[in-house]
Design a protein that fits this description.
The complex is a heterodimer. Chain A is built from five helices and six strands. Chain B is α+β, with helices and mostly antiparallel strands. Classes of the chains: A alpha+beta, B alpha+beta. Chains A and B meet through helix 1, helix 2, helix 4, strand 4 and helix 5 of A and helix 1, helix 2, helix 3 and strand 1 of B.
């Protein structure tokens, strides 16, 4: 009888231990894991809700116009032809001649943000060159004139400008869905206001002539 | 002669053993009850949490699909922000060369003819000729009041020709671009 009781007790303890090890322990771990996950997901949901309300508050039309403006200011790629066309137009407007234009764009496909260095030689009157500088500094795409060398001979100004044009290409993907939507700072809003006052010329790049010349023209 | 029968010692081990098993039963019962309650609580909590998880997942996927639907806006905003940062940097750090040129030209007095002006971010250079020493002195004197903008002024070369004309080269090292930011 005593032996049976002891055996029963040992079996009961062993059974409970096995049950705990095989079922209760994994289940408890699973529940704790789910709870941790749930807490993380709740925080994520809050972030997503904040993001969606920020996105909903944006006016798509206004956003498109603003994005278009800054795209003109800082293009997505190496738009050296646009800069060339712009500078020619500015020079024509100010009665200044573009003597030479030098740029070394390298690989045309821009994969990230960067800048492109240009050198332009101008010939014109003092006012013409000064006005050209003023207009170039208020035109889009944005340029940073690093160096100006002016040599004068009588009334003719010859100016050599070294300037940089910036580009910024976005990554192909937007990143995580719960990433915070960046907001514009007050300074950036001011910059946007300034950019809207800058002049930009419509893109009008004449394609180079292709094919063989017509031998039958007289 | 007396013979006494002592029954107590033979009963003592039986009572101890019974007490032990009774205590085991009691403790075991309590432990088992707590254990059962714990298992029941675990199962109920597990069910509730699974249900909450399912609901949360549905809600999250709903919000995610809404965000995906607004991807165009997000793309525009990201593009706007990234480019504006670059634009702010350019506008905040670049030197307005036209302004600088006008400033340098404002120092050119009658009698001074400039052959070369060099403008860079923190430097300006002027080369030219002055009709006489008086004009040159007046020209150089003007920069004495410009120490805030051009703290370092160097007359890098000065030569007098047979005609009495002074050829000069002047370097103005400036912090003008930084101070104006």
């Amino acid at each position: 009888m005593k032996k049976n009781k002891s055996l029963l007790f040992i079996l009961l303890v062993a059974g409970l231990s096995i049950f705990t090890w095989a079922f209760i322990w994994p289940k408890t771990n699973q529940v704790l894991r789910v709870k941790k996950n749930l807490d993380q997901e709740t925080v994520r949901l809050e972030r997503l809700k904040v993001k969606i309300s920020s996105l909903k508050s944006l006016n798509e039309f206004e956003l498109s116009q603003r994005a278009e403006l800054v795209l003109k200011a800082v293009p997505a790629g190496k738009k050296f032809l646009e800069v060339l066309v712009n500078f020619n137009k500015l020079a024509n407007n100010q009665g200044v001649a573009v003597e030479s234009f030098r740029v070394m764009p390298g690989e045309l496909e821009a994969t990230q943000a960067g800048k492109l260095a240009f050198t332009v030689s101008l010939l014109g009157s003092q006012d013409g060159v000064k006005n050209f500088l003023a207009e170039a500094e208020k035109s889009l795409p944005l340029v940073d004139i690093k160096n100006v060398k002016i040599t004068t001979e009588k009334d003719v100004f010859q100016a050599e400008l070294n300037f940089e044009n910036y580009f910024f290409s976005l990554p192909a993907t937007l990143g995580k869905l719960d990433s915070v939507l960046p907001k514009l700072t007050a300074d950036e809003e001011k910059v946007l206001g300034r950019l809207s006052e800058f002049t930009s010329f419509p893109a009008e790049i004449v394609p180079p002539p292709m094919g063989k010349p017509n031998p039958f023209t007289f | 002669m007396q013979f006494g029968i002592n029954l107590v010692p033979t009963q003592e081990p039986v009572l101890k053993e019974e007490k032990f098993w009774r205590r085991i039963k009691l403790v075991g019962g309590i432990v088992l009850s707590v254990y059962i309650v714990f298992i029941a609580a675990l199962l109920i909590f597990s069910l509730l949490i699974s249900d909450s998880e399912k609901k949360l997942k549905q809600e999250v996927s709903g919000v995610e699909s809404q965000i995906k639907g607004l991807a165009k806006k997000e793309n525009l905003q990201m593009s706007l922000k990234g480019r504006l940062e670059t634009a702010s940097k350019i506008l905040g750090t670049r030197t307005e060369q036209k302004e600088l040129l006008s400033r340098v030209q404002s120092f050119i007095l009658p009698g001074i003819s400039v052959s070369e002006i060099n403008l860079a971010a923190e430097k300006a250079g002027i080369s030219g000729e002055a009709q006489d020493a008086k004009v040159l002195a007046d020209f150089l004197d003007q920069f004495e009041n410009q120490k805030n903008d051009w703290p370092v002024i160097k007359l890098t070369s000065l030569t007098r020709t047979q005609k009495g004309i002074y050829n000069f080269s002047l370097d103005l090292n400036s912090v003008i671009s930084n101070e104006k930011k």
